[in-house]
Amino acid sequence: MNERFRQLAEQAKIDYELLPEIAREPVWIALDDELEKFAELIVQECLKIVEPDRTSGDEWCVTLDETAYSIRQHFGVEE
């Protein structure tokens, strides 16, 4: 798991355990609500990338706004 995913998993309160009998690395254990929070955090990270800088005045902001809106709608993530 890359470092940013690890940080998001911890932020979502997903826990991990060392279980040497089944894995050499920690095993992440998530309840449904924790997994849902983790997914929301990933979508929010994606939105940060595609959402426009509203102070820039770029003409393509409308297209990016529509993309960000579509991502939010698709995943049901609120601002």
Characteristics:
2 strands, 79 residues, 3 helices, two-stranded antiparallel sheet, mainly alpha
Descriptive account of the structure:
The protein has about 80 residues and is mainly α. It has helices at about 5-10, 30-50, 60-75; strands at about 15, 25-30. Strands 1-2 form a two-stranded antiparallel sheet. The longest helix has 19 residues, at about 30-50.
Structural class: mainly alpha
Side by side, the strands of the main sheet go 1-2
State which percent range the strand residues make up: 5-15%
The counted number of beta strands is 2
The count of helical stretches stands at: 3
What can be said about the biggest beta sheet?
Answer: 2 strands, antiparallel
Succession of helices and strands: HEEHH
Residue share in helices? 40-55%
Taken from the alpha-carbon principal axes, the silhouette is: elongated
Mean pLDDT: 80
Q: Low-confidence runs (pLDDT<50, min 5 residues)?
A: none
